[in-house]
Every structure is written in C-alpha cells, then in structure tokens.
Design a protein that fits this description.
The complex is a heterodimer. Chain A is of the alpha/beta class. Chain A has helices spanning 20-34, 50-61, 79-97, 124-136, 166-180, 187-194, 200-218; strands spanning 5-10, 38-43, 65-71, 108-114, 140-147.
C-alpha cells in the first residue's frame, strides 16, 4: 500500500525559505511526514507558467490532502492565490465532467492563514473564502487555522522561534494528529493558535518601533509619512 | 469597460461634471466572462446621473505585477509601490484622489475576483505601516487625510447565502482598514433583468450615490 500524500501550496510571494506562511506549513508537513505521509510543496508565485501550474494541479488531483498556507492580503487571499484557486476550481470541474476525479477519492483540504495584525479575527474572512473554495473545487474541508501576529515568526523555522511559539507548535501538532487520523482539525488547535505569541500592546509597540528602525537604516525616516499621491 | 490601462478616459458628459466629485470604478470581470456588462452599463448610468467624473479600469485588460509582500512601499519608497512601469501607481493615485471607489466583481468564493485583488493588493501604500486601534482591533494608520467612500457590487452565479455573508464581511473589513466612512454593498444574481439591476443598484448604493452626488454633507 502506497503512502498517503499531502501537497502544500505556499501563498506568500516572498522568496522560498523566508516567509511565515511557509514556516507554519513546513512545521505541519514535518509532523505529517513523521506520521508516514509523503509531501510535496509548491510556491504560488512559481506556478504562473502553464507547465508549473499543470504540475501543481496534477499533484493536487492525486493527493490525499491539500494544504494551503497563505498570508492575508487586504483582508482576503492574495491575488496570486485567488487566481490559482479560480483556475484550480475550473480545472477540477472539468476533470469531474470527464470522470477523472472520482468521488471516492475526494481529497481533503486545510488552510492556514496568517496576518500581521495581532488578532486572528482578521483572518476569518479569508478562511471562509478557503472553505467555499474547498466546496466549489470538490475538496472535503478538513478545517482552517488562523494566526494573528504572524510577523513575530520572522520567517524562521518554528522550532527556532522559541518559547513564544510553543502554543503555535502545539496547535499545529494537534492539527497534524487529527489529519493523520482522517479527522477534521479540532477546535483545540485553533484555540492554541489564538493565544498571542506576544501581548497585543507589546506587539504593536515593537512593530511600530521596528518600522522606524528600518526606515532609519534605509535613510527614509523623514519621508515615512509622505503623501506622494495626493 | 470603456477605459483602458494607462489611458483612463473621463467618461461622464463634460457639461454635467461636478469637478469636486470623482469616482473610480474597478471592474473585475474574468477573461471571457461578459456577465457583468449589463451591470456595468447600469452602474455607469447611475453615476452619470449624479454628475460625477468617472474613471474606470477593466482590470483584465490591465497588466499588473503582483504585490511581493516586501513592504518597501512603507520603508524604502514611502507611499509608492517600488514596482514602477505598470498601472499600479496610477490606480493607487486614482483611488486616493477619488470621492468614491466602486468595485464591480463576480463573487468568487465569497470574495472579489482575482482581477480585483490584483489591484487591491497594490494599494497598501495608501496607509502607514504603523498600528492604530479601531473598535478594539488593530489596523494600520491613515497616510492621507481623506479616503474615498466605498461600494462593492458583486454578481453571484446562483443564490448562495454563505457567499453573500462573506462578501458583506469582506467589504466591511476593507472599509474599516481603508478608513472609508461611507460604504454600500449590492449583490445581484447573474442574469437579472436590466430593470431589476437598475433598481437594486439605485437602492443599495444610495448612500454612496448621495455622497458623490453632493446630496449629503
């Protein structure tokens, strides 16, 4: 019997190995590999050429679990992810019509959405959009996880983020355990991710200082409040 | 849409122009999908009745690079996307200099189409990187003094309460994040008769039409 497969689509446009979406998903996939699954990863900004898009769609068609991990862009999924979802849903509808996708092999889908605001409430609309996409594209929705304050990860592997990400790792462990057992992600996993890595007020203070420090380093501190368009 | 990238035309009658009021319309019809056309026609007619100057982009005809999530529009070129040479800066400028932004889109999984997201992802330069609290939630601070009123017109291929709820929530969150004080949402079923389209648009968009038509303070 062949190993079960999971396909990851990273929705961040940042270079591979540097994004928070990838860091979260890589941790989850490592747990799935420990549980005996095989995994394959794609980055959405590298799937724009027809041959790469086809490779992604074929991999997803043949997988047991599709994992979408993405940042929040303007309250929803980023453009490239939205476009990919539109095209994937159309592709899967066409495949269904040709009976290449059998109902008994309906893949499961999970989504991880992280945002730079400290509250995970910002991710709810995007997770809802993912759930509707799953329905429209004939996936079995196995659950979504939102994470606020994602910038605290700093693009590093979660294992290197230390104690402040302990509950994030714990939530993803719970999610992996459920997915390996063919269950949906339990509410406890989301509850773990809902706990702030850094208290909200400290996060916003550090964030504001971070922008100032970066602007000073770039020599743009005095221009940071510019209104060049109006 | 009557206008194109890099050649945005004013499409209201000059004699009816109220130069103080400008409207930007972003149409998010996907390639090959003409279902939004009758809605677009009715929407433009309503806007013309208000005497507003209209600038429109059919986003599927506008080549636009994707946002790279680099935040350089906040730190390296404050207020401007680092990507120049496409219509990104032009659309951001048109948006912040408008009194009303109207998004016209097929409802896609409850949200906007990718053609609309292509444009919206490039406008984070219109806010500051700094955080502020709004109703107990953290959002970005304003960069500009004034932001446009905001309306979203979505077309649903079939009645779908879940997608309708998501669409309303998305518009509400966008309005809060972009500090738009006047908002309106209109959801239309695909294939609705023109009279129904006109009636729904006029009723649901009344707050923003009154705003841009100068019928309210």
């Amino acid at each position: 019997m062949s190993a079960r497969r999971a396909v990851l689509l990273v929705g961040s446009a940042r270079p591979p190995g540097t994004g928070n979406s990838e860091a979260l998903a890589t941790y989850l996939l490592a747990r799935l590999v420990e549980g005996g699954m095989e995994t394959e990863a794609f980055h959405v900004h590298r799937c724009q050429r027809p041959e790469r898009e086809r490779a992604l769609f074929e991999a997803v068609d043949g997988t047991d679990l599709f994992v979408l991990s993405t940042p929040l862009y303007v309250d929803a999924l980023p453009y490239l992810v939205t476009r990919c979802c539109e095209r994937m849903a159309a592709h899967r509808a066409a495949e269904r019509n040709e009976s290449n996708l059998q109902n008994e092999h309906r893949s499961r889908m999970v989504a991880l959405v992280n945002c730079g605001f400290p509250e995970l409430e910002h991710t709810r609309v995007a997770l809802d959009i993912c759930r509707v996409f799953a329905r429209e594209a004939s996936f079995f929705w196995a659950g979504g996880l939102g994470l606020g304050g994602g910038e605290a990860i700093g693009g590093k592997p979660l294992e290197e983020v230390g104690g402040m990400a302990r509950h994030v790792r714990g939530g993803l462990d719970l999610a992996a355990e459920a997915l390996l057992a063919d269950r949906v992600i339990p509410e406890e996993a989301q509850a773990e991710l809902a706990r702030p890595m850094i208290p909200s007020r400290l996060y916003t203070t550090l964030g504001n200082w971070g922008w100032l420090r970066l602007a000073r380093k770039k020599g743009t501190l005095r221009r940071l409040w510019d209104r060049p368009l109006g | 849409m009557e206008t194109q990238a890099h050649d945005p035309q004013v499409i209201a009658d000059p004699e009816t122009l109220n130069p103080a009021k400008r409207t930007l319309v972003l149409s998010g019809a996907l390639p090959g999908d003409d279902a939004l056309e009758p809605v677009e026609v009715a929407l433009l007619a309503l806007l013309r009745e208000e005497g507003t100057e209209i600038r429109g982009y059919s986003m599927r005809d506008v080549p636009l690079a994707h946002c790279q999530g680099c935040f350089e529009c906040w730190t390296t070129t404050p207020g401007l996307c680092k990507t120049d040479g496409d219509a990104g800066r032009e659309i951001a400028s048109a948006m912040i200099n408008s009194d009303l932004l109207v998004i016209l889109t097929p409802v896609t999984f409850g949200g906007y189409s990718s053609e609309i997201k292509k444009a919206l992802d490039r406008i984070i330069c219109l806010v500051l990187p700094f955080f502020r609290r709004v109703d107990g939630e953290v959002h970005h601070s304003r960069r500009y003094r004034k932001y446009p009123a905001f309306a979203a017109v979505g077309m649903l291929p079939a009645p779908d309460e879940e997608q309708a709820r998501i669409f309303h929530a998305l518009v509400e969150r966008n309005a809060r994040n972009l500090d738009c004080r006047v908002t309106a949402v209109c959801l239309l079923p695909a294939g609705a008769p023109p009279a129904d389209v006109h009636e729904s648009l006029a009723a649901d968009l009344e707050p923003v039409l009154a705003h841009v038509g100068g019928r309210v303070a």
